[in-house]
Design brief:
The longest helix is centred in the last third of the chain and has 26 residues. Helix content is 46%, strand content 0%. With 101 residues, the protein is mostly helical. It is elongated and about 105 Å long. The relative contact order is 0.12.
Length: 101
């Protein structure tokens, strides 16, 4: 009778360590306060990159709380309002400039 040979068992290879992202936040807008890098990326996508620092510094100075002291829950809503107002201001400046010529 022939004896069966047992298969050799190999240890699984060690997976290389994956570098963790700098931020644990996912960028959905509900993590408060947001990482500055996420704010810069969001403003850059909305074509208002020069406003990211002023937005972040303003809300950081008031501790991300509303007028009554309640904390904001979603920074992207605040950012979209900020960007909308910025674009409206640009349009107004352009109109005023063209009317004076």
């Amino acid at each position: 009778m022939l004896a069966k040979r047992k298969a050799k068992r190999f240890k699984p290879r060690q997976q290389p360590e994956i570098k963790k992202p700098v931020s644990k936040q996912k960028g959905f807008g509900t993590e408060m306060p947001p990482d500055y890098a996420l704010v810069v990326i969001y403003f850059d996508q909305k074509e208002a990159a020069n406003q990211a620092a002023s937005f972040y510094n303003w809300y950081e100075s008031i501790n991300w709380t509303g007028p009554r002291g309640a904390p904001y829950r979603n920074w992207k809503i605040l950012a979209s309002d900020w960007i909308f107002n910025y674009h409206q201001e640009l349009k107004l400046q352009k109109r005023l400039k063209s009317n004076h010529l």
